[in-house]
Amino acid sequence: MNPVIQARELSRWYGMVMGLNNVTFDIAPGLTGLVGANGAGKSTLLQIITGQLQPSAGTLTVFGEVPWNNPALLRRIGFCPEREAVPMDLRPLDWLNGLARLSGLDAAEIPARCEAMLDTVKLPREHWSKTMGQYSKGMKQRVKLAQGMLHQPDLLVLDEPMNGLDPMGRQEMAALLSDLAARGASILISSHILAELESLCRNILILNWGRILASGSQKEIRGDLKNWSEELSIQCDDPEKLARHLFDAGVLLGFDLDPAAGLLRIRVKDAASFYPAWTALLLDSGVTVQAIRSQSRSLQNIFEKVTA
Amino acid sequence: MTPSSQSSPSSAFFRAWGAIWLFTWKSQLTWRRLRWMLPLLLLLPFLVWKTVDSPQMWAARKNALPLGDSTRQLWRVARSMAMWRIPLAPDQSSQLQQIYDEEYELAEREYRAIQSPETSVEEQRALVETNCQRIVDRAKSVLNERQLAQFKLLEKGFVSEAEDKIGEPAWNRTAPFYRWLIDFYFFIILPLCCVRSCGGLVRDELQTDTLGFLTTRPVRRGTLVVLKYLSQVACLEVAALMEGLLLLWAGALREIPDIGSLLPLFLAVQLLAVPAWGALGLFLGQVTKRYLPLAVVYGLIVELGIGDIPTNINTLSLMRHLKTLLSRDAALQSLFQWTGTGVVAPVAALLFGTLLFVALAALLFTHREYHPATEMHK
Predict the structure, then answer these.
(1) What pLDDT sits at residue A48?
(2) Three-class SS of residue A79?
(3) B248-292 confidence digits (pLDDT tens)
(4) In angstroms, rounded to a whole number, what is the distance separating the alpha carbons of residues A208 and A196?
(5) CA–CA separation, B333 and B171 (whole Å)
(6) Under a CB-based contact definition with an 8 Å cutoff, are residues B336 and B327 in contact?
(7) Does residue B314 carry a pLDDT above 90?
(8) Based on CB atoms within 10 Å of each CB, which residue in B69, B90, B277, B355 is the most buried?
(9) pLDDT of residue B47
(10) Which of B173, B174, B350, B340 is nearest to B262 (CA)?
């Protein structure tokens, strides 16, 4: 499958400050998460993808074309920026109406389309007659998302789209994005709330200090990490006995004990050989297990390992 | 629904213009803005109305030629004669007093007979000079030869003093109106408003961080900036038309003569001035976020400096072309004494300047990035 976005030796600097440092990556169709701490270069990358900035060196193409000053390509891209700013004196329908015209949509269909978009992002109708200056952060976020999706782009680029949304709103947004992706749109989401990306995105791009540290599916990234170790948290009646048993079996890299809470945290040497033997090892130990949780499969854990 | 890709470039342009037009007008015509814009529009016409005299007020305040007081004049003559050791005899003094009283009264009568609020400076000077000549002629029968020679010198000095007073702007009732209209409004307020409005077209969007919503749309960056300029200029033209009409109305209330003939000329020149100053502002706004100070420096160097150099280099000044066009009004020409003639050349120069600045701004916006974080902290 052809990549949606291709970057080759891409760099971008602001004077002496490096925004992106010689990065090369491909982003496949579907939902992709862009992960990185503040200042990692996420927004710079998204602005190059959406044609707001030019690379200082290297190339970046979207659907095989350079985005800067390329109206034909921009017609296929939707963008929802991180910042809260929206035109304060405009009503959402007026704003969407104008942006739809700028996007080249058929004038006759624009009003219905704008209303449908506001319904899609679940902006309550009683707020449509207010100017956006009176909106809460969450409401602005919904309108911003609506403007990004207005022209049904092939690639939707979202910079921190969940900011300002309540938990219910985040859930609705996640469902909406999954639905869009299922209908064939490619979506690139930047977020620092990794738990959301984890459930939403199969593919991940990890940025740190302007460099790409890892890219691909979460499974692939875990597989690529040389120092990767599976981490499990086990609630049982005798954590000390279980730890000794597993240590004797030679499957552990290390462990932490919390006898008072009946908790054992283990780090496993080789996940591939550990999991087939896991049930037998537990039975042999004679310990009663109440709960097992995987600590290492979270995106947070991947991010920490990659950036360590 | 899909974007209408079959549409012609011109229809796409007009559709995009419709969008930018909508953004410009919808954000300008809000109660929040109108609340302070309307009083501002009315402020200058009110000041004009307040500070310009009506013919009645003017006549009440300026009902005399600046001849001074006849008794004081005689006292000055007597003192000077005494200093030159050719003192006036008592009968000479009383006869001269009578001459002064009669001639001053006659001059005032003549003045009131021809007086209109716009009695020209030349007419007033002629009256003063005639009055002086009559006094000297009559004094010949009263004074001896040496006294008469000195008296002629003194009278010459008095005439000169009176003429200086006539030359003061306060003597022309209409001058303050034209100073407000042309010097203050047309050459200070209007250019500053246009530069501020059009210079902020991109800068204000950077400040509020909303530029990205427009630059990520399928419209060329150069086209985008031109559309924003056209929409803003349309807004400015309406505001300037309202302000211009209000100012001329204030003038009409004060019975400024020939205001009806000034109106079409003034509005037509304003119609050209607004896009020209706006284009300058647009260009400067692309260059730096400190476009207003830069515009003031530009105004001082190019408009006031180079524009006043009496060679062809002064054609670089937009203000000069505007003055040439305005000088077709007789009242303005007589007050400001502008040089320069013709209509086609200044109009062409203004249009060329406008197009040049807009093209430069579009070129800059096409090739230059405007990143909020970097631009606003420069």
Answers:
(1) 95
(2) strand
(3) 999 999 888 888 889 999 999 999 999 999 999 999 999 998 999
(4) 19
(5) 17
(6) yes
(7) no
(8) B277
(9) 94
(10) B174
Under an 8 A CB cutoff, do B208 and A104 touch?
no
- Residue A182 CA to residue B335 CA, distance in Å, equals 76
CB contacts, 8 Å: A81 with chain B: 209, 212-213
CA-based angle B356:B373:A96, to the nearest 5?
75
Name the residue among A71, A81, A98 with its Cβ closest to that of B218: A71
Contact at 8 Å (CB) between B201 and B229?
Answer: yes
Mind telling me how many Å the CA of B4 is from chain A's nearest CA?
6
Q: State the nearest Cα–Cα gap between A78 and chain B, in angstroms.
A: 8
Q: How does pLDDT run across A18-55, given as a tens digit for each residue?
A: 889 999 999 999 999 998 888 888 889 999 999 999 99
Instruction: Name every chain A residue with its beta carbon within 8 A of the beta carbon of B1.
Output: 105-106, 109, 113, 152
Flag whether pLDDT at A159 surpasses 80. yes
**Nearest residue, CB atoms, B219 vs list A71, A97, A100:** A71
> Is any Cβ of chain B less than 8 angstroms from the Cβ of A108?
no
